[in-house]
Write a structure and sequence with these properties.
two-stranded antiparallel ribbon; 47 residues; alpha+beta; DNA Primase, Chain A; 2 helices; 17% strand
Length: 47
């Protein structure tokens, strides 16, 4: 069952426009380019 987010779509769009998520996540996880996307291993357990 899908539930509607309590966060308005406009707030999510605004956050995505203002924050470089790749740079933020890249401070904590080593990211590797994979096609048009970036991938990183989960920092909470060994893979």
């Amino acid at each position: 069952m899908l539930r509607r987010s309590m966060i308005p779509d406009e707030a999510i769009a605004d956050l995505r426009a203002r924050v470089d998520l790749k740079a933020l996540v890249g401070e904590y996880v080593r990211l590797v380019k994979s096609g048009a996307s970036w991938k990183g291993l989960c920092p909470f357990h060994n893979e």
